[in-house]
Amino acid sequence: MKAAVIYASVTGNTEELAEMIKKYLEMRDIDVVSYPSALFPLSQLQDFQIVAVGTYTWGNGEIPREMRDLYTAFEEYGSKKLTTGVFGTGDSLFPRYCGAVNEFRDMLYVCTNLAVTLKVELTPQKKDDQRCKRFVDSLVKKQRESERNERF
Ligand SMILES: Cc1cc2nc3c(=O)[nH]c(=O)nc-3n(C[C@H](O)[C@H](O)[C@H](O)COP(=O)(O)O)c2cc1C
């Protein structure tokens, strides 16, 4: 099973979360690569069984510019064979808390086999470690279900 963690982060919060999620994917013996979104080769999206998308939120609840091409690539090349999860950090003082996570969630639900979402307030804390583990457990479970359904 091949997985990619693709994220955008300016001040490091979402990157930290991406690293925690990568660690738990590796603990499940999954072949995992991690990319800042600007470096991810979009043509390779279909090479993965699992993609975890990580985004901070900008402006008034908006997707950051460096995540927009990835968003469009999912719309164009996404499939129900691709299991996805979306995670992100935000600041609940803003009216649209983690708005970019919501935007990705709604699109990934339509274009892919969406398993799970995770929102974290600013810098990940110790309690978020277990939330990352559960995020990965949900991704793997959903991917296994989808493989089983394909066989029948
Ligand atoms: C100009 C600006 C606008 C922001 N707008 C939002 C927002 O609408 N909703 C939200 O939840 N967080 C918002 N944030 C907070 C960031 O998403 C948050 O600090 C996040 O953890 C940054 O992630 P990073 O450390 O990975 O770059 C905003 C931050 C800045 C500086």
Automatic annotation (TrEMBL):
Q: Could you name the domain of life of the organism this protein comes from?
A: Bacteria
Known cofactor(s): FMN
Endpoints of the signal sequence: none
Domain Flavodoxin-like, which positions? Answer: 3-140
Q: Which InterPro entries match?
A: Flavdoxin-like, Flavodoxin, Flavodoxin/NO_synth, Flavoprotein-like_sf
What UniProt keywords apply to this chain's record, in alphabetical order?
Answer: Electron transport, Flavoprotein, FMN, Transport
Family matches, as Pfam families: Flavodoxin_1
Would I find Flavoprotein among this entry's keywords?
Answer: yes
State the similarity comment: Belongs to the flavodoxin family.
Functionally, this protein is described as follows: Low-potential electron donor to a number of redox enzymes.
Q: Which PANTHER family match?
A: FLAVODOXIN 1, FLAVODOXIN 2
Q: What's the name of the protein? A: Flavodoxin domain-containing protein
